[in-house]
Amino acid sequence: MFTGIIEEKGKVESVDQQGEAIVMSVYAPTILTDVKQGDSISVNGVCLTVTSFTDTAFTVDMMPETVRATSLRDVQAGSEVNLERAMAAGGRFGGHFVSGHVDGTGTIINKKAEDNAVYYEIEIDPVLRPYLSLKGSVAVDGTSLTIFGVTQSTFTVSIIPHTLQETVIGSKEAGDPVNIECDMLAKYVDELLKHKFRMTDNPAPVTEDFLNNHGFK
């Protein structure tokens, strides 16, 4: 489990393509102070397992599904990546619940500065739209962000200077891909409602009265 608060920008040292799988090494001296083999680290929002490490770098394996489903397929030696260690049980929770299980990739289609913020408009697969809500949470390349605008095929986030400096999104431009993880709670509610409908011969439409009657008040 992660929070979406990026701890370090790492730099990819090597990418070893093995069929559809990838073995990747990342330079990251800051977050390796307490690392152990088998630990989980979020790399651009993707939960990966540390297979080996030194004082300054760690190595992870990416299976074909991860390569196909995330933007990590495009990283090269020298690419910067967002890094976050799995949340400690007694740690401060600064972002939102982030699992590191990416729902899909999006594409930045517009980047606009306004006063001290930069607005990013990101195009997504419409299948993700039900899990995005105005002022709700979303993880973009593993960074916990608040949604300030949403349409059927895009959403907009506003990035403050600190986040621009400390995460990889500050260097991204229109046309660049990003990993998207939608709000976990929204996905669970959706799945529960779908399950209830599957168990009902004549499912009722989801109305305000239906939600009130089933505990969503």
From TrEMBL:
GO biological process: riboflavin biosynthetic process
Chain positions of Lumazine-binding repeats: 1-96, 97-193
Pathway the protein contributes to: Cofactor biosynthesis; riboflavin biosynthesis; riboflavin from 2-hydroxy-3-oxobutyl phosphate and 5-amino-6-(D-ribitylamino)uracil: step 2/2
Its EC number(s): 2.5.1.9
Keyword ATP-binding: no
Protein keywords: Repeat, Riboflavin biosynthesis, Transferase
SUPFAM superfamilies registered for this protein in UniProt: Riboflavin synthase domain-like
Main enzyme class: transferase
Record-annotated Lumazine-binding domain positions: 1-96, 97-193
Signal peptide positions on this chain: none
Coiled coil residues, start to end: none
Domain of life: Bacteria
InterPro entries found in the cross-reference section: ATP_synth_asu-like_sf, Lumazine-bd, Lumazine-bd_dom, Riboflavin_synthase-like_b-brl
Record-level Gene Ontology MF annotations: riboflavin synthase activity
Catalytic function, reaction form: 2 6,7-dimethyl-8-(1-D-ribityl)lumazine + H(+) = 5-amino-6-(D-ribitylamino)uracil + riboflavin
Record note on quaternary structure: Homotrimer.
Function: Catalyzes the dismutation of two molecules of 6,7-dimethyl-8-ribityllumazine, resulting in the formation of riboflavin and 5-amino-6-(D-ribitylamino)uracil.
Protein name as catalogued: Riboflavin synthase
Lineage: Bacteria, Bacillati, Bacillota, Bacilli, Bacillales
